Amino acid sequence: MDLIFKALADATRREMLDKLLDQPGLTLGDLIAGTEMRRQSASKHVQILEAAGLVVTEWQGREKKHFLNPVPIQEINRRWVDKYSRTRADAILNLKQALEAGSTGKRK
Amino acid sequence: MDLIFKALADATRREMLDKLLDQPGLTLGDLIAGTEMRRQSASKHVQILEAAGLVVTEWQGREKKHFLNPVPIQEINRRWVDKYSRTRADAILNLKQALEAGSTGKRK
DNA sequence: TTGACATGCAGTTGTTTAACTGCATGTTTA
DNA sequence: TAAACATGCAGTTAAACAACTGCATGTCAA
Q1: Which of A38, A100, B58, B92 is the most buried (most CB within 10 A)?
Q2: Which nucleotides of C are covered by protein (CB under 7 A)?
Q3: How confident is chain A (108 residues) per 10-residue block, as mean pLDDT?
């Protein structure tokens, strides 16, 4: 779970996932096309995404095709985001009270 | 958006959010109770959570009460997770083909 | 009004991270 | 089989991060 959150914490990696969502099967070369990034940097990012299970790869000859795996993200949604969406009524009430008290987060 | 993902990337901070979900209004002292962490470290984490909008605070005298704000997490769900949950059929097909080809991600 | 308390802010240090360069390995094609 | 190609792996470096210590500021209670 920690690996997934860490992987998603980087904007470059989120952009990679976006590309793979639109165009499944891109190679490493495809992924860096149009960017300033070196091949080796992108490769490291892919490793992190693979370790988190967010990207699955398949070798075809000398090319490595990359595919987005949406399951871990759905996992986050199910096991984590849902919990906070179902915020209990009293918690929301407390938050509202804090906000309505004119709280700015700054000490008076 | 980047601030939210970065804030969620740390396990300590996710635990803080869990505590605030269960017990709205905890102080900094409450948050570090039972942990090895120093007050100052926890304070830094809270700053990061506040900057991401995940935590809202209210001063009551010399105490600072902390509240979870579920809105940014719901934002992530709406603007980001949904996109990957609605993965297009052909993308899933491509992924399945990659997996069924016995791909281990390792070069043959 | 003074001492205990809750927190903030500044600075230090060790670890992690992300970029790079250089070289190695396996694959296709002429 | 040799050259061009796609990628991997190792090592370096600079920036970001997370923990700490020490000191300052504002609040409560005797």
Answers
A1: B58
A2: 5-11, 17-22, 26-28
A3: 96 97 95 96 98 95 94 87 72 59 56
